[in-house]
Amino acid sequence: MTSIEIPIRDKSFVIETGKMARQADGSTVLKYGDTFVLATAVASKTERVGIDFFPLTI
């Protein structure tokens, strides 16, 4: 796990990666006070030839 802590005013802003959402290709947790945000990204291992748009899957 990699973690960076930055003091901002009276709280700390923390960026963590490698701890949560290990099935995703990439994930980061951002913490500031009582607020937590989890951002994840997943990419296909194979290229889709002939596609002229970026498909969004939720």
TrEMBL record:
Annotated Pfam families: RNase_PH (PF01138)
Exoribonuclease phosphorolytic domain ranges (all copies): 12-56
Transmembrane segments: none
Gene Ontology molecular function, alphabetical: 3'-5'-RNA exonuclease activity; polyribonucleotide nucleotidyltransferase activity; RNA binding
InterPro entries reported in the protein's UniProt record: ExoRNase_PH_dom1, PNPase, PNPase/RNase_PH_dom_sf, Ribosomal_Su5_D2-typ_SF
Entry's Gene Ontology BP terms: mRNA catabolic process
Keywords from the named record: RNA-binding
Family matches, as SUPFAM superfamilies: Ribosomal protein S5 domain 2-like
Signal peptide extent: none
One Gene Ontology cellular component: cytosol
Database matches in PANTHER family: POLYRIBONUCLEOTIDE NUCLEOTIDYLTRANSFERASE, POLYRIBONUCLEOTIDE NUCLEOTIDYLTRANSFERASE 1, MITOCHONDRIAL
Protein name as it appears in the record: Exoribonuclease phosphorolytic domain-containing protein
Organism: marine sediment metagenome
Higher taxonomy: unclassified sequences, metagenomes, ecological metagenomes
